[in-house]
Amino acid sequence: MKNPVNITTTTNINELRCEAGRLQMKGAPYMLASVVIWGIILLIRTTTLDIQIMNILTFWSTMLMMPLAFLLGKIMGVNIFKKTNNPVSKLGFLCTMNQMLYILIVMWASSMNPEAMLLLFAIIFGSHLLPFSWVFDSKIYLVISIVEAIGSLITGCIFGGAALAAFIVVCQLIVSTRLLMECRAFMASKKAAVEL
């Protein structure tokens, strides 16, 4: 016989997810930062530089993620480095950091098959967004992780690196817009609840 679900625990988890989403604006600063970074990668991929140089510049551009996310967070009123006891927020941070380990695969690909580096990087980038659909209770992360992973494979194989980077830029703009809309709706409902 199955154990009954503890409704109180489920409610608490949902409250923690809600709080994590509110504190981090559902990850919008990171997604907006990724638009800038993938825009830089797009510019790099439209040059006539050697593929190895393009790959190195692509890696270097990713170093802007945390400073850009921090700056965009400040502009949006979010402290992305705020310490919290919320375990869901900690899970979100771990989900962000796991991509750093996957970068080792991209580095290996860059040395073994430089032409495939950006394709692998885009697939990993898109795929790593999947757990945030649960962390921030946002379906856009679920949808975009699948779209970016499969779309990157198709776009990269057929059209090449510049088109692939442009594809990710467009996807990330959609995600960022959707997250900002979700945060605005959440804040409006909270404000309405307080006024009642």
Q: What does this molecule look like?
A:
The protein is mainly alpha-helical. The protein has one domain. The chain contains 9 helices and no strands. The termini are far apart. 35% of the residues are buried.
Number of domains: 1
What ranges have pLDDT less than 50 throughout 5 or more consecutive residues? Answer: none
Give the helix/strand class.
mainly alpha
Tally the helices. 9
**H/E element order:** HHHHHHHHH
Averaged pLDDT: 89
The profile of the biggest β sheet is: none
Distance between the termini: 44 Å
List the helices and strands and how they pair.
Layout: H1 7-23, H2 28-45, H3 51-61, H4 65-76, H5 87-112, H6 117-127, H7 132-135, H8 139-159, H9 161-195
Describe what is shown at a glance:
With 196 residues, the chain is an all-alpha fold. The chain contains nine helices and no strands. α2 runs antiparallel to α3 (51-61), α2 (28-45) packs across α4 (65-76) and α2 (28-45) runs antiparallel to α9 (161-195).
Entry keywords:
single chain; 196 residues; mainly alpha; 9 helices; 0% strand
